[in-house]
Amino acid sequence: MPNYTLNIRRYSPESGEPAHWEKFEVEMEGHRPVLDAILYARNKVDGSIGIRCSCQAAICGSCGVRINGNPALACNTLLRDAVATAEDGITIDIEPMGNMPVIKDLIVDMDAVHWKKVQRVVPWLIPAGEPPEREYVVPHEAMVDVTQTMACIHCGVCVSDCLSMEADPDFVGPAASAKAYRFVGDPRDAATKDRLVHLAEDPSGIYDCTHCFKCVEVCPKGVAPMNQIMRLRRRATGDFQIKDRNNGYRHEKAFVNIIEKWGTLHEAKLLPDSYGEGLLGKLNPEAQKNLIGSAPTAIRGVLSGKVAPIKVLHHHKLPDQKKVKDIYEKIHGRDERIELNLYIVGEDADALEESAAVAVTEEGTS
User: Fold this and answer.
1) Which pairing describes strands 70-73 and 64-67: parallel, antiparallel, or unpaired?
2) Strand stretches in 262-342, DSSP E
3) CA distance 349 to 248
4) What are 250-266's pLDDT values in tens digits?
5) Which parts of the chain are beta strand (E)?
6) Domain ranges in the chain?
């Protein structure tokens, strides 16, 4: 039977000692989960090891930890897989999740961060008027739209690995944002616009996400929180045209317009266009204030070579820019925005790309 070495990060606040690492030898089959090994060490070697767990079936989300530096559910990670990612190929490092205070050993304070952020998005349905005499009747496609966010088990794994939260602890976070879309996408909710205005106006709201994809990579349930943040943005900008004080609406519009016109990003125009639309918009006192405040960023861009002075005045268009415009015209010509939920459709991404390419080719030859 294989022998595994667990290197557990220990911390006991009542001892007054700093956190330290402690190794435990565990004899167990490789197909057993890491959680079983931790519980074995606690039951057989040191009963003071702190670990939170419940269902042991990747349903309750209680046993979130970091294994070899990556957040995961201990009950959902096999020993043989964990040792394969170990730095030395032998020792499995296990430590508490990040971005949350540690209570003891592998137990973090979910109330202080995760649940507090979930409360910020008002995580319950706000119906319009009196409830019906019987049940609500909701279109099937409407519930399909929110099924992915409903799969969240609030394990906090995405919160642990969120780079935006490391830079800004006030960021609403991936889990809370996914919960917000659960109700924004629900046709029974009467506070859709209010929710979006709150998230768009909040300096640490949906525009604070830096698109690092970490929450998408580590989520054990495929909720893809970053995707839900992008959907919240599309609802706020595309459906409600919420012109927020964070310039999220104007930044998106500037980005889209620049690509439509040139095909590539015009860095010199993106910043001023994000603060004000057209000449009059840029003369607005608030836009002027933002532009002056961004002067150091612009100077650094020039000094680093990211923005060349000659390109400020003249930006080359793509040779096939007409094809880019054709794509824009086709999308703008649609009556409604179509979003494919791969979580529900269950199609392979490669197959979807292939079928889409065939459709484009057939349309071009017809």
Assistant:
1) antiparallel
2) none
3) 29
4) 999 999 999 999 998 88
5) 3-10, 20-27, 64-67, 70-73, 91-95, 102-104, 107-108
6) 3-108, 114-239, 263-333
Lowest-confidence pick of 58-62, 68-72, 81-85, 341-345: 341-345
102-154 pLDDT, tens digit per residue, is 999 999 999 999 999 999 999 999 988 888 888 888 888 888 889 999 999 99
Pick from 28, 88, 92, 40: which is nearest to 65 by CA?
A: 92
Residue 144 has a pLDDT of: 85
User: How remote is the C-alpha of 53 from its chain's centroid?
Assistant: 25
Place of tokens 């595994």: 4
The length of the chain, given as a count of residues: 366
User: Considering the entire predicted model, what is its pTM?
Assistant: 0.85
**Beta-ladder partners of 175:** none
Q: Which fold has domain 3-108?
A: Ubiquitin-like (UB roll) (3.10.20)
Q: What is the DSSP string of 167-197?
A: H-TTS--HHHHHHHHHHHT-TTBS-HHHHHH
**Strand 91-95 vs strand 64-67: parallel, antiparallel, or unpaired?**
antiparallel
56, 42 Cβ separation under 8 angstroms: no
CATH number of 114-239: 1.10.1060.10
Round to the nearest angstrom and report the end-to-end CA distance of the chain.
64
Q: What is the CA radius of gyration of the chain?
A: 25
Contact present, 101 and 44 (Cβ < 8 Å)? no
